[in-house]
Amino acid sequence: SKTLFFISFEPFRGGLDCATVEPLFYCSVSSDLEEKRIPLPSNSQSLQSCTVTVFILFLQIPLRSDYGYKVSLFSHLHQYSRKAPLTQQISIPATVIHPSIVRLGLQYSQGIVAGSNARSVALLHAFKQVIQDYSTPPNEELPRDLVNKLKPYISFLNQCRPLSASMGNAIKYIKKEISNIPSQCKEEEAKKKLLLCIDNYVNEKITLAAKAISKCAIDKISDGDVILVYGCSSLVNHILCEAFEKQRKFRVIVVDSRPRLEGREALRRLVKRGIRCTYVLISAVSYILPEVSKVFLGAHALLANGYVMSRVGTSQIALVAKAYNVPVLVCCETYKFCERVQTDSFVSNELDDPDDLIVTREGKTQLADWQSVKSLGLLNLVYDVTPPDFVDLVITELGMIPCTSVPVVLRVKNVDQ
Amino acid sequence: MPGADKETDLGERIEAFLAELKRGGRGSGETARSTAALLRRITAQARWSSAGDLMEIIRKEGRRMTAAQPSETTVGNMVRRVLKIIREEYARSRGSSEEADQQESLHKLLTSGGSSEENFRQHFAPLKANVIEAINELLTELEGTTDNIAMQALEHIHSNEVIMTIGRSRTVEAFLKDAARKRKFHVIVAECAPFCQGHEMATSLSEDGIETTVIPDAAIFAVMSRVNKVIIGTQTVLANGGLRAVNGTHTLALAAKHHSTPLIVCAPMFKLSPQFPNEEDTFHKFVSPQEVLPFTEGEVLSKVNAHCPVFDYVPPELITLFISNIGGNAPSYIYRLMSELYHPEDHEL
Questions:
Q1: Which of A77, A147, A192, A221 has a 20 to 30 Å separation from B205 between CA atoms?
Q2: Are strands B263-266 and B321-324 parallel, antiparallel or unpaired?
Q3: Which residues of A32-54 are buried (b: 16+ CB within 10 A; e: fewer)?
Q4: How far is Cα of residue A290 from the mean position of the Cα atoms in its chain?
């Protein structure tokens, strides 16, 4: 998107000898723009009658183009190809986007940093870098200028990979903290304060919250349990490892699904600790569920109407668990609670690279040239929403709450702030 | 001696058939046809003098064949059909009406003293020819099943529908292609990992111009709310109206039930089996866990159990309709159809 600024000036006609005065003007309509000082021609005639029109085109973050055929139900969402990262399509001068943000954006789009906790922590660390390297331009106030500096970074990251709910909350927090800095505060002090705020946020909302949640959750794990987990949730893995340290006897069934196959990562982590594991794909979940005593699921976000937004396949596991009367426990930190409401997985979701679904078996790749077939589409959803009647309990650092109490927690948090 | 030659030839053919069964890889329709053809050959070439002898021979061969590949139930079903044919032809030759023999009315149970003495020992010359002719009719019926089912497609699919299916079923493929000739609709295929037969199904359907989308198994519940009908095939239809279908079907059925979406099963009659689902190991079939967790994963493999079941049990409450070559039926009617196809004494081979 391009921002077009049109400034028209008529030099003042006054008693001054216009030939000698060099009027300067600069635009500070938005501090995204660089200052442009344009001296007028010192021809007195032209000064009298000139109207200077200045067009300033400022290239904002270019839009990444969609890839492949999008299924009609999801044509309002973006579908990008992993093989064409954003940085190939734009030539960003380094002054516009901080290099650590560029690096972060690439890591997001290639899937190197994945998982809502990991993405939020990486984002906050990158922002710490940005704040450290930041210097207030003259005639600007740190709070407003810094917030405006962050805007193109955030839209760049959004183009690399749509922001998650946890990242959104983290960004809101940072912006609030920046705006709350008193204007008479010196720059060094302000920066130190902000860095400390960010560290506290990571510590409280993520690290300590995980510890509190594990403590609650370990009470729910009894000896002889068979626990089913889906995909790779850092929080659930943490809980299971803690429970194992505390000498609980249980075994774990890891359910995985194509095309991401994140469960293999969870499997490696659990096996390294020495936990006994079984591994199946999601299509075998109704075979394995009669053996299971509890299901632990992670969440990407908890919505205000009690729905749980999580990796695609979570709602399916909750559905089958309900059919077999197995309790489903969702573990989620409160910083992932968000005020959005959603009732289905169509309106706001994320579409991943459709080429991930292609697989080669026995030398044959069935979908190799799916693009050439007009009526064939591949759908690679990333998230889905689980209705609250499938979930029995949500474990947060504030305690164990039912799914429907999410708006209560949100309200309490808002009152606190 | 020509007689001995015929017998060794027959024996060889049976061995070849068993080897083919053990190897697997054939579709159920093909298996059913080759089983019926083999049974016809046995009837023609084996040495028997009365119906009872023939039934004994066929039962013996049938037991061997089902032992070779227990999960392929069409073999056992064909054997039972042929046994029923033999009984019918015998009864017709004897002159007694079939209806009276078959009915297990309460009155008959009480008055006959509980034993139906039928030792099938009488010799009838035209029996052989009649049985072979009846088996030929059976073969003709088998050949027409897919077309019969596909012909009913237009009664079940309206335009602009979204239909979901899972894996690859030749019956469903023919069904959808037939409907696509006159109606425009959209198909969503769940790929059914780890074998991903859904990919083949999707490419085949899209080549015929049907709008197809492939989704991973994990997205079944997520997209189910926009699906109008679920049409699936199955490996076996069990005696209680339940299914033994490819794994992932139970999840699909539960999701359809949650959204009140009708679940339609396209299954020809030769897939109907007098087995009941049970908890024993005979229900499930497993293949190498290498499909699920490949050897490239390394050390983790030795510390982990991986499972790769092939089939799923779907209870009859989740099924709305069965479409077979003789028409549409509710799951509660399956027991009746079974009593018309097989004789109760043949349920255990």
A1: A77
A2: parallel
A3: eeeeeeeebeeeeeebeeeeeee
A4: 36
Residues of chain B contacting residue A375, judged by C-beta atoms under 8 Å apart:
206, 209-212
Are residues B133 and B184 located together in one domain of the fold?
A: no
C-beta neighbour count of A204 within 10 angstroms: 13
| Interacting residues of A194 by C-beta distance below 8 A, sequence separation 6+ | A131, A174, A177, A178, A181
Residues B180, B133 share a domain: no
The total of structural domains in chain B comes to 2
Residues B45 and B140 in one domain: yes
pLDDT in 10s for each residue of chain B, 349 residues: 566 677 788 889 889 999 988 888 788 889 999 999 999 999 988 888 888 888 999 999 999 998 888 888 999 999 999 999 998 888 888 876 555 555 556 666 666 654 455 677 777 788 889 999 999 999 999 999 999 999 999 999 999 999 999 999 999 999 999 999 999 999 999 998 889 999 999 999 999 999 999 999 999 999 999 999 999 999 999 999 999 999 999 999 999 999 999 999 999 999 999 988 876 666 888 999 888 988 888 888 888 999 999 999 999 999 999 999 889 999 999 999 998 899 888 888 8
Cβ-Cβ contacts under 8 Å, A379 against chain B: 213-215, 219, 223
Question: Can you tell me whether residue A227 is helix, strand or coil?
Answer: strand
Omega of the bond leading into A259 within 30 degrees of 0 (cis): yes
CATH number of B74's domain: 1.20.120.420
B68 shares its domain with B14: yes
- CA-based angle A315:A321:A326, to the nearest 5? 140
pTM of the model: 0.87
- Whole-number Å distance between alpha carbons of A113 and A124: 13
Please tell me which residue of chain B has the smallest CA distance to A277.
B304
- Domain match, B136 and B217 both: no
ipTM of the complex model? 0.88
Distance from CA of A122 to the nearest CA of B (A): 28
Chain B residues whose beta carbon lies within 8 Å of the beta carbon of residue A377:
211-214
Q: Which range marks the domain in which residue B138 is found?
A: 3-97+124-145
Residue B285 lies in a domain: no
Q: What tokens does B250 get?
A: 């139970």
E strand intervals along chain B = 162-166, 186-190, 211-215, 229-232, 236-237, 243-246, 263-266, 304-306, 311-314, 321-324, 327-329
Is A375 within 8 Å of B211 when comparing Cβ atoms?
A: yes
